[in-house]
Amino acid sequence: MSAELCDLTGAELSAKLAAGETSASEVLSSSRGRIDAVEDRVGAFLTRTDQLASERADELDAYLSTGAPQSPVAGIPVALKDVLTTNGVRTTCGSKILETYVPPYDATAWARLAGAGAVLVGKTNCDEFAMGSSNENSAFGPVRNPWDLDRVPGGSSGGSAAAVAAGEAVWALGTDTGGSVRQPASLCGVVGLKPTYGRISRYGLIAFASSLDTVGTFTRTVRDSASMLQVLAGHDPRDATSLDVPVPVYTEGLDDGVAGLRVGVITEAFGEGVAPAIGASVRAAIDRLEELGASVGEVELPHAAYALSAYYLIAPSECSSNLARYDGVRYGYRAPGEHADSIAMMFATRGQAFGPEVKRRIMLGTYALSAGYYEAYYGQAQKVRTLVIRDYEAAFERFDILVSPTSPTTAFRIGEKADDPMAMYLNDIFTIPANLAGVPAISIPSGLDDAGLPVGIQLTAPALDESTLFRAAHALESALSLELRPPLLQGTA
Amino acid sequence: MSGVSYEAVIGLECHVELSTATKMFCSCANVFGAPPNTQTCPVCLGHPGTLPVPNREAIARIIKIGLALDAEIAPHSVFHRKNYFYPDMPKNYQISQYDLPICVGGHLDVELADGSGTRVGITRVHMEEDTGKSTHGGGSGRIHDATYATLDFNRAGVPLVECVSEPDMRSPEEAAAYLRALRATLESLDVSDVKMEEGSLRCDANVSLRPSGTEPFGTKVEIKNMNSIRSLERALIYEIDRQTAALERGDAIVQETRHWDEDAGSTASMRSKEEAFDYRYFPEPDIPAMEPDAAWVDEIRASLPELPRARRDRYVETLGLKPEVARVLVGDRGSSALFDGAVALGADPVGAANWITQDVAALRNAGGGDGALRAEHVADVVALVATGAVSNAGAKQALEASFTSGEAVEAAVDRLGLRQVSDAGALGGLADEVLAENPDVVQKFRDGKDGVIGFLVGQLMQKAAGAANPKLAQELLRERLQG
Predict the structure, then answer these.
(1) Domain B424-482 - what CATH class?
(2) Do B53 and A239 touch (CB under 8 A)?
(3) Strands A171-176 and A77-81
(4) pLDDT below 70 — which residues of chain B?
(5) Residue A492: pLDDT above 70?
(6) Is A180 a residue of the active site?
(7) Region(s) of chain B under CATH 1.10.10.410
(8) DSSP letter (8 states) at residue B77
(9) Does the active-site annotation cover A242?
(10) pTM of this prediction?
């Protein structure tokens, strides 16, 4: 399979579209061709939107032919994680309980991309209600990693990561509550951004844990990530937690380099449990930053060790409440047959249609919020969260950017950790602290391990300083200049 | 009889639906009585991915309520989620407030029928959202054997204010007086329709008994489902009797929630303390803390209208009304508006108050509303009676006409021929006739029997066919007899 339009970056496609060298329809048909070629092996999508996409591309071509001003997003094939609502297009959250649910409205994030001319190619598979790190918790089957079809793509936004890695979409949206964009980006060898909490509206992001959920982006370059955030960022009157602060021009200063940038290496993130190849790859990337003029030092986040425990109380607590609405009354699955009363119907519905991981977290959260336990669990976890926030504040007094591996392992085999929730939860040990603190973080590829699987490095910046994050990540990406093409796409043209 | 007498301790929790144009967390219209499920959107139906955005006007109104009750407006206040499963609650949690309500403390001064007063403390006033409405059908129509339920979500997400009193009331009359005073206050603030029959004002009561003269509270019982002030009073009387009888039998009071059955006139157990829900309250992560700035609160404070208590004091102290008359006027927004309007037009306050609390009240009760009556009608009636142009009876007739049709009082008086003859010249001739026709009576008067003047006035009134001013008639007769 040779490189095609769908393998180009958004910036390259945008330039070709502007120059009249290609059309939105051609770009779409390239993306669609790739989906037809690999989807039976990858399984990234739950719903394809071929008809809508064709209509959209035609409209765009008519518009582009007028020579009117064009957004860098126009004509780019985009996939959306199936927890973002799309008006008139089924949105399942990877759950049986919403298998037939068709939202009556668009998520703000998607509405903004659509308004700028993005073309939706489909809705991607994910762990049920975004709970998981391997995509194995989807009610509709696993997604396979384009780098090794026996391995997981990571999760929970596994479908979006795999789709971008395989060229099925050029860009994708995911959501990141504890690492669900960065970890699969790392495992699939693409760029995954989790911006500052509140930077992108959550309206239409089907909630898992509201105080942690963030819309995030998948692209193949840092520049594309900046272009995407440009369109997505900003206040939304429909989300009271979205920030009403000006949005900088993210591509400005992207090439300014890292000379003088103070880079803090999170020491704890290179210890026990981290695959040696990952430590080596990330260390090498840090050396490159130093060669580029950054001043590198070591930093500790003393309370990060408790972040995972705090996260697994806060996120399930919020989830137990957020998922209460799936009761078979107004939409979605309803347990068939006669029921003693409406409460019995609601309980039967939930018992039948939620998967085991979702049930586990609902039970955990219900318990943590119960009278008599609240202070010991939820209350205590919130205190840890405050300490983690202070750790970051202290670290950012000394450093502009913090770096660590994104994930302690590269892609693992499907089924390998499926029966061990604790091993699975540990996948997010380096990504969770940024969610607790609400700060922005990005994962970019730093290389391949011995098995030829992608390794990711995570960069973290202070709240709302995505510009510095992009600048540092772009400098590193340029210096590494990795040629990443999954084996799936190599071989015969 | 054990010989111990008991004192009731009563606290009320009132729910008030605000009459804002839109709902609490979405832009759906907030209207009562629309066809089912026509005032809904993805947000108030709890669709996946939707988020609540607080209605600023609703927050302004609850601050207004807090200020009117002399509560502290919290500089930092938080919404919490109250989690429980019920089909008419779209998210299966209610956005409410818990340990950080927006209004803290306060009080309401209450006047009883005998003119005595009491001050009822306010614990807190907090903001929440209303639920939808379920109707059970099939079987007997009662929940336990219904075969289906229908749901109407028009009410889901309507701004709801909960006002919790201290356990400061000692009798059903005090509780009723408190609820009346609260309703009058809310009505004057123009924040709610406060209609108990439509559910825009709802009230639950907590009641316990303790031996008179002792301090510790007894075991409390919560009563729900009172749909009028009258039913609150009845339910409390019933419950106090029930608890008294239980204590006299030596039984313990069970902490529970009881349901008032209006038709049966009794309360029945709904659930005990052991069956109480664990609501798993936690801070609502979708809504930042409310931190109303001081300037905004001051602006709201400056916009407060005259409150019922201040109005009552003004009526008594400045306008000279009797306290019981002032209480009746203040207890009804229409009456006090009519009164203030009439006084502003120059009407004598005492006269206006008497007309409004008696004749106008009777007309309104009979007509079931304000009719076409305006303040100038009242002012004109008071003035015409004061000058003697119309008799009391005539004024009443004119008032009724104005109430029905809105016709000006003077026009009604003329149309109905109610004007009294107050022309000394015309009446003087008739007076001379009366004296000439009744020499015996005139003699009796001159002999010192002053009481016979009444007979002579009656004769004169007869000659004038009732259209004479009786006061003037007597004056003219006396002038002639003594002259």
Answers:
(1) mainly alpha
(2) yes
(3) parallel
(4) 1-2, 140-144, 368, 421-424, 465-466, 483
(5) no
(6) yes
(7) 424-482
(8) B
(9) no
(10) 0.90
